[in-house]
């Protein structure tokens, strides 16, 4: 639902674009994207690096990890430094994007992640949904990664 084809539209432009539509437009799937965002409460401009794989992560990369979008599949976390999805989400914020009318996968119930409910046919709701997402990210960072605001 959310992947490297449409993540920048979602996080930076506050608009959900179906990834299949993006794929049909052609172009290579990016491995890395930079997203700029002004944090909701402080207005501080921050840059976030969005990656498709942690394969070449350094210790600094692991330490700077803030948030992970999951599809609800444990295989996504193969070769991570943490051994299970539960452990992953003890070390970073987890988001599970889904359509508002869908149920989350049963496997995610013990992961400690937040649901990102996207309206299926109401694009005018995207801005509010993503604004709420950024509030959650900022709150997570204030609690768990306060040095990022320095």
Write the layout of secondary structure elements.
Layout: H1 7-11, H2 19-24, E1 32-38, E2 45-51, H3 59-64, E3 67-69, H4 85-91, E4 93-99, E5 114-118, H5 126-144
Parallel strand pairs: 3-4, 4-5
Antiparallel strand pairs: 1-2
Describe this structure in words.
This protein has 150 residues and is α/β, with parallel strands linked by helices. It has helices at 7-11, 19-24, 59-64, 85-91, 126-144, and strands spanning 32-38, 45-51, 67-69, 93-99, 114-118. The strands form two sheets. The protein has a three-stranded parallel β-sheet, with helices on both faces. The radius of gyration is 15 Å and the shape is globular. The termini are far apart. The mean pLDDT is 93.
Brief overview, please?
It contains five helices and five strands. It has helices at residues 7-11, 19-24, 59-64, 85-91, 126-144; strands at residues 32-38, 45-51, 67-69, 93-99, 114-118. The longest helix is centred in the C-terminal third of the chain and has 19 residues, at 126-144.
């Amino acid at each position: 639902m959310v992947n490297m084809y449409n993540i920048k539209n979602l996080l930076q432009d506050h608009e959900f674009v179906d990834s299949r539509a993006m794929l049909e437009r052609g172009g290579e799937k990016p491995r890395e994207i930079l997203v700029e965002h002004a944090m909701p409460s402080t207005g501080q401009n921050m840059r976030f690096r969005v990656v498709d794989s942690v394969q070449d992560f350094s210790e600094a990369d692991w330490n700077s990890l803030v948030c992970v979008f999951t599809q609800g599949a444990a295989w996504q976390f193969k070769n991570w430094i943490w051994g299970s999805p539960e452990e992953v989400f003890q070390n970073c914020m987890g988001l599970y994007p889904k359509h508002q009318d869908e149920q989350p996968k049963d496997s995610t119930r013990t992961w400690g992640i937040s649901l990102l409910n996207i309206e299926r046919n109401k694009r005018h709701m995207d801005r509010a949904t993503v604004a709420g997402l950024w509030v959650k990210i900022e709150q997570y960072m204030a609690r768990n990664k306060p040095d990022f605001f320095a």
